[in-house]
Structures are given as C-alpha cells and as structure tokens.
Amino acid sequence: MRSGMIAQGPEVAAFEKEFAEKMVAGRTSVAVNSGTSGLHLGLLAAGIGPGDEVIVPSFTFAATGNSVALAGASPVFADIDPRTFNLDPASVRAAITPRTKAVMPVHLYGQAANMSAFTSLAEEFGIAVFEDAAQAHGSTWMGQPVGTFGSFGVFSLYPTKNMTSGEGGMVSCVDEIAHGVRLLRNQGMEKQYANEVVGFNARMTDIHAAIGRVQLTKLEAWTKTRQENAAILDANLHGVVTPYVDPSATHVYHQYTILVDDDRDGFQRALREEYNVGSGAYYPIPNHRLASLAPYAPGLDLPNTEVAARSVLSLPVHPSLTQDDLERIVAGVNATAKAGA
Ligand SMILES: *Cc1c(COP(=O)(O)O)cnc(C)c1O
Description:
Helix content: 25-40%
Largest sheet: 7 strands, mixed
CATH topology of the largest domain: Aspartate Aminotransferase, domain 2
Distance between the termini: 57 Å
Order of helices and strands: HEHEHEHEHEEEEEHHEHHEH
CATH architecture of the largest domain: 3-Layer(aba) Sandwich
Radius of gyration: 20 Å
Strand content: 5-15%
Strand order of the largest sheet: 1-9-8-5-4-2-3
Number of strands: 11
Number of helices: 10
Bound molecules: pyridoxal-5'-phosphate
Shape: globular
CATH superfamily of the largest domain: Type I PLP-dependent aspartate aminotransferase-like (Major domain)
Structural class: alpha/beta
Oligomer: single chain
Number of domains: 2
C-alpha cells in the first residue's frame, strides 16, 4: 500500500511470473479479477462465440457453464465417470456435433481429469481443449501439471480454493491466447489508450497479487498436508465410499468427497448435530437442471451426474485440521454410517 501502486502494477507482473514458473512451466500466466473472468476471457480470446458449442460437465460449479454462455456460445453438458466425478470421455464423444468447438473438462475436487483421452478426442475431431483448473492447483495427469494441456487453463484464487488472493484468477495460456486475454482484461489495450478491441475491466489489483504471491510460497506444503489428511481418512473411514484416484492422476484434495448411499442430507445433519463435523454437498443440483442453464439442455438426462449430485458429501480435509479434528471426523462418519446401515 505504501508503494502508491494499488491497481494492476508490478506486484501483478511478479505474481504472474512466479505462478507460471511454479505451476505451469512453459506457459504464460495472466492474472484477472476472478476465475470466472478467466474462463470468460479465455473463451473469448480463443474465438468462442455465438453459434459455437463447448462441451462441459454438468457436475461442477455453475461458473463453468456460465462462462460459455457469457461468451455467447452454448454449453453442452456431458456425463461424468462415477468413480472420479470427472467428465467421461465416452459421453463427451457422444455429445460432439458439427458446431462443437472445444471440450472444457473440470479437474473436479482437485483430481486431474483424463487429459490423454480429451487431447486425443480433440485431435480426432479438430476441436480445442480448455481446462477449468479452478480447484486443482498443482494437480497432474501422467506427471504433467493441469493448466498445461489446453490452449488455456484457469485457476481460481477465491478464498475457499487451495490458495487465494482474496478474489482472483490466473489464466495459463499458450502465447496466441495470452495477448487476447491481456487485451480483454484491460479495455482492449496493452499499450495505454491504443485500444485494439472492445474489452472489460477484469484486472487484478496489486494488493490482491501481493497476497497471492505469499500464498504461492505456501501452496506446496499445504497440498502435502491435504494429501496426508486424505490418506488418514482413506485408511480409517468405514461404511462409505472414499475417493477413488485414477492411477494416472494426482489429487490435491480441494475437497475430500465420499459417497453416502442413501439419505445424504440426513447423514450430513447427523454429522453436524451429533459430532460437530461440518460437511458440504458439492453440487446438489446438476448445472443442466439449474434455472439459469436448463434452457441449454432441454430433456437432457445424465444418470451418473444425478447419482453423484444426491450422494456426494465433502468432509473437512484442509491443512489446519488437528489430529483431534481428524479423529472426530473419523469417529463421526463411521458411527453415522453404522447407524444408517
Ligand atoms: C471456483 C470455481 C470457479 C470460479 O472461480 P471464481 O474465482 O470464484 O470466479 C470456476 N469453476 C470451478 C469448478 C470452481 O470451483
């Protein structure tokens, strides 16, 4: 604050450079004011617009489909693999039409989606790959970091995500797209008052970037703690389905998500009331049935998405959990599962 530079300035430039080096080596990172802006601007910079279709999961936060709709294109919802909750390549293949321009998998809960399958589908059909990596900072598919597969990938820096800048997003881009995102975030100009296109104000502030830079130095240790917490839960939970991790993927446990066979909401209530364990259902309504996005998906049925939406429950896995917390979570979940069985 004392520097006198508060809006986008040297802190943003430093954050972009450090983020690119650490998270998506070889790509350019462009900072914006939210993950949603990042997806929206990435799509526009990639030339997505009216008449185009982009295939996305329905089992995700609404920002994924919203960004496609905001770009003027149509989100086309495909089903998920019931084990990983990530987009199912077979369902994506079935959803491809002559208007399909891209597939945009989400690395849901922090586990990388099957990028080998989406990359080869994209080659086969001549479409692009974009990544919604909002929940997956540092996750990998076959050793390659998420955010480096598609022509762009977006990380959210919202406070609930694995690292934060207060609000913010980081777009990992191939060079052709980076220039477009930089233009669109700043009224269409890179050089002041030489506006090249019609753009937005989607800039990150130096204050937010300064927070993000410090968070970035802590991410690796936090991720390791999340993974250790997840391993403890994996080893000790009984009577529920614990997260499946694809052997080609790493999981950074933005969420630790179990499946509860019946009465998920009752399970959640019992955990809270009897064991003081908070939990969350992400996401209870599939995007293709939301009032906002349903018009894009008339009559669509996604059976695996429906099962997940009514059965998933995310338990605390964050790096500040104590040994006592973990023991309470294990005891609560095991007792509640047993009582329900
Ligand atoms: C959080 C999130 C976003 C949006 O990020 P914001 O920074 O909140 O705008 C997009 N997609 C997914 C999957 C998310 O979880």
